[in-house]
Amino acid sequence: MSKRLHLIGFAALLMVACLLSTTWPAIVAEEGVIYYILTEDNEITLRYPIRMGGEVLTREVFETLMIHKVDRLNEIAEKYGAKWTHMTAVGPWFMARYAEEQSADWEGLYDALIEQVRRGSAAGHEYAVHPHAHWDPRTSLNAAIWDPEKNGFVDSWEDYLSWTMGFMKVGDFDDLESSAGYLYDHKRRIMEITRRETVVHRSGGWQFGNTPEQQIISLTALKMNGILANSDADANLTLSGNAGRPFQESTYFTAIDSINERSVSSKEYGTLEFTPNPLPILSFESNSLAQLNQKVDQAVAAYTDRSGRIKPGIHFITGFGHAKNIMGGDGTWSSLEGGQFDVIDQHLAYVFEKYVNIEKPLIRFATATEAVLEYYDYYSERPVAVRGDEERQVADRFFEYPIRVLGRFGPEFAEAEVQPPIWWDARTDIAKVEILEGGEVIAVHDRFESSYPYLAFPVKPRTKDQSSKDFNYSMRVYLTESAPI
Known about the structure:
By secondary structure, this protein is of the alpha/beta class. The chain has helices spanning 2-21, 48-51, 59-78, 91-102, 109-122, 179-194, 212-224, 235-238, 289-303, 339-356, 368-379, 426-429; strands spanning 33-42, 84-88, 126-129, 144-147, 152-155, 200-201, 229-230, 251-255, 258-262, 272-274, 314-319, 364-365, 384-387, 392-395, 398-406, 415-418, 430-437, 440-445, 455-458, 473-479. The longest helix has 20 residues, at 2-21.
């Protein structure tokens, strides 16, 4: 009798546990995923021609750094189904536009830069936000000086670290010389071309800040712009050459006032930090083929158990480099064949054959945004809503988009917030936004005080057994007559 009572009690406990498990979120114990994210900083540098024996940034060098080298990297990656995330500085686009106004020799470069982004995005590569205000003639921090006699740009810097200056105020979207405004300008200009959501940012030349007060400014600006993750290129600031962290320590939700500290909660955090890894970093511009392959092997070993199964969770291999610094076989800035390009080609072939093109793949190539969204979906215990890229034009000025609500969360979270497409200014271009669940309208917004507002809508709790894709949320955007299409 006693044994029977014990069994009944145990069964009751199991029932309670099951009931609780269908109400409250929990980390799912299924096999994990390893994402390989290829990142590079898509930018120019004024010191580049000096280092290569010249004295001025000419159109030829500019075009090679931000167009031809990026195209070449994309071409190599596409052979293996890999995708680059190009952390893109928009300021140099305006250097090109300024140069076009000064010299006929520079005509057409601005349009060529835009077309490169369009071409790469259409092939599946990501163009993300990487602000460098010192390479932007529109800002007071601009260090790119036009030299009419040399028909190019020269370096006005006296201190290498001068480029770590940023805009240490939050500001608003209308203020280009503010953290929020400069990020907004970058994200909007990129997404006007790609029409693809990017939720990642790399700090570097745009100083994230050292004190909690400074970092809160930067974190606030990221939040305002719908940026969910930062990838800090720390070695750019320390000059140590040792950016990054060990694989299992490099990706984490941050504290609310510091990207260097981990949050103690997956409900309350600042952003997601995914630092290039390991330590020293996997560098596309300087590592040998053996080093690149070895670091990926080390990552797989770190992220798998003794049986060879991927440990539960979302795991990142985040490579780092600059297209401008990747040299061809002859070691000159203009070469696009051989040298480090061949090293990258052979490395991706190695990863593809050993870890991707197998019966049960151990690695998936992904853009940073793709990987970041999966990380949030797996680990966040508060709802995070993002607009999907699939656009359906219902009528002349009526568009519909899917919404994905990421995370596993309980009933204490009754609402989520989502932003409309950034390429329209909500104040002047959008007449109304409807949020729907299963085709039924659950929220309506028709007054917008911000050009890129957050729009609230009710959400249902998500249990550990449910996927974010099980919920059918969507957004309908009705445009004004004056809105560009």
